[in-house]
């Protein structure tokens, strides 16, 4: 099996590459940069330029496809290019794009002619790295919506489910809603990061306008900060799913585990 992993330099794709390699698969990693450092063959291509993917797709049996772009037309073109050379795609869904959410993404897959699996993740635990600067600087994380409770999902679990769908039969036309094993408020997440560091780190609630200023000071772009805070304000409770356990045969990883895995980043 030769697998092309897109987003291979990112949080999820890096894990997909590592887990595929551990299973003995022949892996090719896509990046826009010819200087990207990856532990497997590197192919250069840009999802925004669908034809640039053609060389990367030669002799490939399945593609792990992330979609970092806010553009449905490009996604259709990319799926067309893939379908000319490859039989199967595992698509990592994203919820944040207006007019191109999970229903539209799934519809594109249905029309693609490919064998497909749709992996639909909840909020990534790795988003907690956004607090790195504050936790390095002290024992308080200042932010808004500290009570917002989300089932934070470990990137290793997204990868583990994706790897099963890439390597095994029996996942065609499956839609896999993934969550972490428990719903945790932002304040609880901060406390668990502190626990992993052996420190008493706590959440301090501040008004949205101040949280916005804090995020801008931490280096996040204005467009991202406003979309994120709007999403937090409007977010409906997300129910925990058991899909990770059903697909991989082991329970989803906890946020406590995630914090231990990433403690060095906050130290
Ligand atoms: N954070 C969340 O809570 C959440 C929830 C649901 C879905 N998602 C989605 O999950 C996806 C993966 O997340 P992540 O954290 O692993 O991403 P990440 O760490 O931010 O990395 C993004 C990856 O996308 C690649 N990429 C970006 N633009 C590209 C382009 N035009 N052509 C080819 N590759 C491109 C980058 O590769 P190079 O820079 O090497 O080219 C990089 O490997 C994201 O697209 C996001 O929309 C995130």
**Class of the largest domain in CATH?**
Alpha Beta
Class computed from helices, strands and strand pairing = alpha/beta
Strand content: 15-25%
| C-alpha geometry | globular
Distance between the termini: 39 Å
Biggest sheet architecture? 7 strands, parallel
How many structural domains can be distinguished in the coordinates?
2
Q: What is the mean predicted local confidence, pLDDT? A: 96
Estimated radius of gyration: 19 Å
Strand order across the largest sheet: 3-2-1-4-5-6-9
Total helical segments: 11
> What is the helical fraction, as a range of percent?
40-55%
Which ligands, by name, code or SMILES, are bound?
NADP nicotinamide-adenine-dinucleotide phosphate
**Unreliable stretches covering 5 or more consecutive residues:** none
CATH topological fold name of the largest domain: Rossmann fold
The CATH architecture of the largest domain can be named as 3-Layer(aba) Sandwich
What is the count of β-strands?
A: 11
Run of helices and strands: EHEEEHEHEHEEHEEHEHHHHH
- The CATH superfamily of the largest domain is NAD(P)-binding Rossmann-like Domain
Report what the structure shows.
The chain has 267 residues and is of the alpha/beta class. The chain has 2 domains: 2-121, Rossmann fold (3-Layer(aba) Sandwich), CATH 3.40.50.720; 123-152 and 180-238 and 253-267, NAD(P)-binding Rossmann-like Domain (Rossmann fold), CATH 3.40.50.720. It contains 11 helices and 11 strands. It has helices at 11-22, 72-85, 102-111, 132-137, 155-167, 186-197, 208-217, 222-234, 243-248, 255-261, 263-266, and strands spanning 2-5, 26-31, 41-44, 62-66, 88-92, 115-121, 140-143, 149-150, 174-178, 184-185, 202-205. The strands form 3 sheets. The chain has a 7-stranded parallel sheet with strand order 3-2-1-4-5-6-9, sandwiched between helices. A two-stranded parallel ribbon has the order 7-11. α3 (102-111) links the parallel β5 (88-92) and β6. The longest helix is centred in the N-terminal third of the chain and has 14 residues, at 72-85. The mean pLDDT is 96.
């Amino acid at each position: 099996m030769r697998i092309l992993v897109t987003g291979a330099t990112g949080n999820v794709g890096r894990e997909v590459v590592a887990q595929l390699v551990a299973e003995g698969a022949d892996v090719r990693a896509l990046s826009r940069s010819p200087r990207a450092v990856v532990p497997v063959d590197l192919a250069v291509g840009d999802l925004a330029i669908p034809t640039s993917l053609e060389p990367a797709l030669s002799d490939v049996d399945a593609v792990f496809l992330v979609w970092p772009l806010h553009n449905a037309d490009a996604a259709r073109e990319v799926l067309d290019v893939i379908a000319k050379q490859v039989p199967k795609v595992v698509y990592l869904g994203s919820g944040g794009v207006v007019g191109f959410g999970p229903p539209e993404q799934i519809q594109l897959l249905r029309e693609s002619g490919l064998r497909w699996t749709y992996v639909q993740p909840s909020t990534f635990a790795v988003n907690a790295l956004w607090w790195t600067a504050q936790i390095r600087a002290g024992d308080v994380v200042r932010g808004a919506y500290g009570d917002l409770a989300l089932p934070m999902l470990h990137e290793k679990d997204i990868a583990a489910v994706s790897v099963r769908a890439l390597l095994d039969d029996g996942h065609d036309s499956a839609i896999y809603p993934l969550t972490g094993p428990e719903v945790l408020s932002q304040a609880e997440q901060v406390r668990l990061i502190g626990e992993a560091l052996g420190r008493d780190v706590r959440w301090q609630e501040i008004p949205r306008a101040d949280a916005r200023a804090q995020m801008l000071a931490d280096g996040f772009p204005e467009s991202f900060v406003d979309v994120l805070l709007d999403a937090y304000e409007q977010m409906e409770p997300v129910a925990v799913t058991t899909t990770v356990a059903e697909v991989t045969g082991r329970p989803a990883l906890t946020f406590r585990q995630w914090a231990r895995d990433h403690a060095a980043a906050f130290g």
